[in-house]
Amino acid sequence: MKTRKVTRWKPAALLGSLAFAVLWQLAAWISGPAFLPGPVAVIKLFFVQLTTPGYLGTVLASYQRVLVGWGIGSLVGMVGGILMGRYASLGQFLYSPIQFFRVIPAIAIVPILVIWLGVGETIKYVIIGYGVALVVAVNIADAVQRVAQVRLQAARSMGAGPIRIFWGVLVPSVMPEVLKGVRGSLAFAFMSIVGIETLAAQDGVGKMIWNARVLHQTDVAILGIVTLGLMGVLADLLVQALFRLFGYRFMMRR
Amino acid sequence: MTAMASPSLSAASEEQEIALECRNVGKDYFRHNGERVRVVREVDLKLRKGGFLCVLGPSGCGKTTLLNMVAGFEQTTEGDILVGGKPVNGPGPERGVVFQSDTALFPWLTVRENIEYGLRIKGISKAERRKRADEWIEQVGLTQHTSKFPGELSGGMKQRVQIARVLASDPEILLMDEPFAALDAQTRNYLQQELSELCRKSGKTVLFITHDIQEALMLADHIIVMARAPEKNIKAELHVQMPYPRQRMNETFAKLYNRLMDEIDNPFKGSVRSL
């Protein structure tokens, strides 16, 4: 595994973004701003909205849900994945249920959870955490099983006991996969948030997008989409910065 | 060299302290279809303290399995393994293992931290740990690379770290499982010379597994040739009298090389027809 680096803004990437914006603006002119607002209109709206407490509240509500749900899901997934990888019988025991739930999108269990949990914040954390935990657990369980046998043997022959081997060898050995899985599942968390906010929330970016439909506010709907994308990019940059700060030694090439 | 029976080792080694002894060691494996296969068969050997024993054999002859049993990673099906007179029961720090694969290193620890690992387990103080680690780092020539991570090193350097990591813990026996097999020829030669020197300086006892005849002749004072079934597992043995440091390009070396070449069995012998 190679050391991970932030993808830099290279000229080609900048050009790609510009080309996309130009095409979008052209399409907006042709179709009319009511049907498809262009990037300029959306950016204008963005700066207007930035000054309103409503928009910021919406963003913060979603952000909080994503981060809490993702945090809980990552933790559950990590612990579950390591245990499943370490204890083959537990892995086998959970294999079928996990394969079963893996194909069920979070959105499908929203109605039943609304009956059980109501429409408070808990349901958002559960829905987001559900998807994240499954993805993280499956990847980490696999990684634990692929830890080089000789590394465990080396530690044993130097006198390391089971606890030291677990915390000192097994866990750090799977850290690259943990970091990869946790970072990857952040995208998963953002995908779930829209569904759950559409179906069972009073606020949040998902609700903002969905409500825009009623009043035919195409610009608001697109601003919502753009907002989601920016939130995701920002969260990813933050996570990467944290990894580089605290996890750099685990991202070393093997 | 004659394929003499293994218990009749030279009288000289009987007088010296025995570091490792295998008595009638055997190991069975089960194949995927449940068939029982005996991979290690009736292995008797003695390794005197300070000796360098090479187990030489083709792949599949059970030489790595033998080392794994001595290391305590695998149990014997039959027979006893004694280290320092005590029967082996699981891995222990008095037997240090150097593996062929560099994945045995801890990639999240620096060179120094890797070498300190065994000392940390022994509960040795930080200052002492550092002192001993740095000594071994110097011994293996990695002083410039102390705070690098294994991923930033070449294959040869990584094996140097493995060797230093094991030696820092000061084991009674060094168990080496083809540690240079994955390296390029040049690096392998350097490391053989360095290991030979290091072992003579420190008086370490070594059990070294290899399939490389030249390597065995460069390093060992005692070579055991292992063969696949149905041949006898220990097919032949040889005491190498050549003085260290050894040279490849001389007559004695060439003669011994050819004799060992004849002893090592070729599973495809006779299967290639002359045109």
UniProtKB/TrEMBL annotation, chain A:
Keywords, in A-Z order: Cell membrane, Membrane, Transmembrane, Transmembrane helix, Transport
Source organism superkingdom: Bacteria
Domain ABC transmembrane type-1 span(s) in chain numbering: 59-243
Keyword Cell inner membrane: no
Topological relation to the membrane, as annotated: Multi-pass membrane protein
SUPFAM superfamilies: MetI-like (SSF161098)
Regions crossing the membrane: 67-88, 100-119, 125-144, 182-201, 221-246
Entry keyword annotation includes Membrane: yes
GO biological process, one term: transmembrane transport
Pfam families in the cross-refs: BPD_transp_1
Subcellular localization(s) per the UniProt record: Cell membrane
A GO CC term attached to the entry: plasma membrane
Family: Belongs to the binding-protein-dependent transport system permease family.
Protein name (database record): ABC transporter permease
Biological classification of the source: Bacteria, Bacillati, Bacillota, Bacilli, Bacillales
From TrEMBL, chain B:
Residues in ABC transporter domain copies: 20-253
Keywords: ATP-binding, Nucleotide-binding, Transport
ATP-binding listed as a keyword: yes
PROSITE patterns listed in its UniProt record: ABC_TRANSPORTER_1 (PS00211), ABC_TRANSPORTER_2 (PS50893)
UniProt-listed Pfam families: ABC_tran (PF00005)
Spans traversing the lipid bilayer: none
GO MF entries: ATP binding; ATP hydrolysis activity
Protein name (Swiss-Prot/TrEMBL): ABC transporter ATP-binding protein
Organism the protein comes from: Paenibacillus sabuli
